[in-house]
Design goal:
Length: 180
C-alpha cells in the first residue's frame, strides 16, 4: 500500500514536470511574462510578431507582423519627438532616466485603421529615486485603402506621436522634469 502511494506521487511529479517542460517549450523566447489561465491549445497559436490585423472580413482575419524590434521603434521615435519638443536627450549622465514597459501596441483595420499604444513609464532622478510613474497612451485613426502597409505605418507613427504629446501634456511628468 505504501508503495502505491509513493509510486502515485512519483507519477504525479512526472506529469507535472512534463507539463511544465511543454509550457516552457511553447513560451520559449517570449519577451513577456506569460501567465496563462488556459492552455495554448484551447486559445490557439500565439504570434508575438503581430502588430496589426485586418478584420474587414470576420471569417478571414489577415495579420500584419514585423521582424523589427517594436520596443526600439517606440523608444527611438518617442525620443526623437521629445527632442523636437525641446527635451534634451543624452546617452549618459542624465538628470533623469526614463524607462518603460509597453502595455499595448496594435492596429486593427476594419473600415478604418485604429491603433493604440500604451506604455507604463518610470522617471528616476540621477540618484535613482523614482520621481514619477504613469501610463501614457496614444491613439490614431485614419482612413485608407484595404490592407496597405503605408496606412499601418502611418497609424503606428501617429500613435507614437500622440503618446509623446500626452506625455508632454502630463502635469506629473512636467513636474518631475522640473524637480530632478
Amino acid at each position: 500500500m505504501g508503495h502505491r502511494i509513493l509510486a502515485g506521487g512519483f507519477f504525479a511529479c512526472l506529469l507535472l514536470s512534463g507539463a511544465a517542460f511543454a509550457r516552457d517549450d511553447v513560451l520559449q523566447n517570449v519577451p513577456l511574462k506569460w501567465s496563462p489561465t488556459s492552455t495554448l491549445a484551447e486559445i490557439g497559436p500565439l504570434d508575438v510578431s503581430g502588430v496589426a490585423e485586418n478584420q474587414e472580413k470576420t471569417d478571414h482575419v489577415r495579420p500584419v507582423t514585423t521582424s523589427s524590434d517594436v520596443a526600439a521603434f517606440l523608444v527611438d521615435h518617442l525620443k526623437e519627438t521629445l527632442q523636437h519638443a525641446g527635451v534634451t536627450i543624452v546617452d549618459g549622465g542624465a538628470d533623469v532616466t526614463i524607462t518603460g514597459e509597453i502595455r499595448q501596441f496594435f492596429v486593427t483595420e476594419t473600415s478604418m485603421y485604429r491603433g493604440e499604444v500604451s506604455v507604463l513609464l518610470h522617471v528616476k532622478n540621477s540618484a535613482g529615486k523614482e520621481i514619477w510613474t504613469g501610463v501614457i497612451g496614444g491613439a490614431a485613426e485614419r482612413f485608407g485603402r484595404s490592407y496597405r502597409l503605408d496606412n499601418y505605418q502611418e497609424t503606428m507613427s501617429d500613435m507614437v506621436l500622440h503618446a509623446a504629446y500626452n506625455l508632454l501634456a502630463s502635469p506629473g511628468f512636467r513636474e518631475a522634469l522640473q524637480k530632478r
